Amino acid sequence: MIDRLSSAYGRLLAGLALAGCAILLAMMLIIVVDVLLRNLAVPGLPRGLAWSNEISELMLYLITMCVAPWLLRRGQHIRVDIVLRAIPPRVAWLLEWVGDAIALGCCLVFAWIGTLAAWSSYVSGAVNIKTLVTPEWWALSPLPVVFVLLAIEMVFRMQRLYRAERAPRADAVNAA
Amino acid sequence: MSSWQLAAWLMLGGSAVLLFIGMPVAFTFIAINIVGAWLYMGGEAGLAQLARSSVNSVTAFSLTPIPLFVLMGEILFHTGLALKVIEGIERLIRRVPGRLAVVAVVSGTVFSAISGSTIATTAMLGSLMLPVMLARGYHPTLATGPIMAIGAVDMLIPPSALTVLLGSLSGISISKLLIGGVMPGIVLSIAFVLWIILRVRLTPSLAPHDGGAVMYQGWERWQPFFAYVLPCLSIFGVVIGALAAGWATPTECAALGAFATIVFALIYRAFSWDALLRALQGTAAISGIILFIILGATTFAQILSFSGASNGLVQLITGQNLSTDAIVAGMMLMLIFLGVFVDQVSMMMITLPIFMPVVQALGVDPIWFGVMFLICMQLGLLLPPHGLLLMTMRGVAPPQVTTGQIFLAVVPYVGMSLLLLAAVFWLPQVATWLPKLIG
């Protein structure tokens, strides 16, 4: 039962990552169109997209949000494993539990404070005023959602650790 | 113990402990920031500020070149265009001792000019050129060393995702930092080629003369260069030219570069939707790792500052009556030491909140400092036992190449990188000449 749930949840996270890929492609195209329109006068079209920078930076944030839970599922959030490799495997496995428990707590706290920040922003009617004027809670609301997703994945991660060999995981150690 | 010392121990010591028990870097910073924001930024109000700062940290136009520079390299590799580039370079380079190792370095330099990802360059060259070199009797150290070394140089030669990140986090001009990496990167590439030639001249058995290789003549020899290598390099020319001339921001250059690479693949009928999807997924993964750490870690510097720890540490360092050179040298040594244990993004996140105020207080040229910082990070990619490129090579090398040979293979290239660091330290013009000339 739990395996089926975990597998279905993994597909959801992969779908979210695909959405991140689509946003990445769209971000590139928007910036290219903006540069081309600014430098080439096309009759009937504006000289550049005034909102391009603002939308691009929002897209960058959304890409980060969309892929973060998927990266956790794939063990790609990088870490330093030099100590875990040097100590007895069983002790390293126990330290994995300590790290996971703290990370789970962090996800729940961040989901909570993210919800509070988004809610208070919604209630107060705060807005971001740049080229576009947008309610601040629009930008704040994906944060708690993603941290809830991360917390759920952290539970599945701990379940996988429980079943795994009593040794440290083989997670990623670098992004360069 | 004064309050700033306590804050410094809590923030820096606490993050070190969590890092070394193997918590993912991003979650380490999030945990420390939750505690720090509660203690030093006013309890619940501090936590709400932490959430807002985290969102703002990655909603930043200055960071958008990171995925776009990575995408350029990923498209090049997933469409198979990189193979054509290697063929083009291989046909041109003839009668040189250690010819294939030289081809690997030159190809790696060309890839560096298009790719913003060191791991992609190393994995690509390792999977394509290493089997050929080993099959032709090259010694494993000569076959693996140049590939790892030139992979690390990718970080210096623009476009480079990590250079953008360094510029964004440190407040150093991203354009000048990107251009500042060109000269040291090219110097290292030339030094690697000269070293290979010298090494094979002294010990010819390291690289048997490849008599079996087909030597093309006339137009056949030059055709792939004009068909593939030159157009590839023209992407670099457009990106860096527009950046240097101030016509476009780093973000716009990166987007144009990524778009040009897709057009390039379309023209050469190398484009497929599957290749694009794999390139986008690879890019999303690398960028997501970096950006999520930024989201978790940005407030770290603010809390250090609010608690008084930054100011206290800066006064402690500058009050030791040490010369500016001695302090900068100390910082570089610390970076090299950190490079043995931690990844490049963490190196920046841990050190920049302390180093940059010191650099400003001492009036050090930020471009000079930034380029040396990049060279130290590049060294970290090659330092045993955890250098990323050593691990990447272990992943693509056949079992007959031992891990000991891989470690041994990088030693001369690490030595040359250290010499370059010393050269930039004593002759800052190596790093600052080009950015000053252009900017």
What would you say this structure looks like, in words?
The complex is a heterodimer of chains A (176) and B (439). Chain A has 176 residues and is mainly α. Chain A has six helices and two strands. Chain A has a two-stranded antiparallel sheet with strand order 1-2. Chain A is elongated, with a radius of gyration of 21 Å. The mean pLDDT of chain A is 91. Chain B is mostly helical and 439 residues long. Chain B has 21 helices and no strands. Chain B starts with a helix and ends with a helix. At the A-B interface, helix 1, helix 2, helix 3 and helix 4 of A face helix 1, helix 2, helix 3, helix 4 and helix 13 of B.
Name the descriptors.
heterodimer, A: 176 residues, mainly alpha, two-stranded antiparallel ribbon, 6 helices, 2 strands, 73% helix, 3% strand, B: 439 residues
Please give the share of residues in helix of chain B.
Answer: over 70%
Net shape of chain B: globular
Count of individual helical segments of chain A: 6
Shape annotation of chain A: elongated
Count every helix of chain B, treating DSSP H or I runs of 4 or more residues as helices.
Answer: 21
Q: Rounded to an integer, what's the Rg of chain A over CA atoms? A: 21 Å
- In angstroms, what separates the terminal alpha carbons of chain B? 46 Å
Reading the helices and strands of chain A in chain order gives HHHHEEHH
Spatially, the strands of the biggest sheet of chain A line up as 1-2
Low-confidence segments of chain B: none
Distance between the termini of chain A: 38 Å
| Quaternary organisation | heterodimer
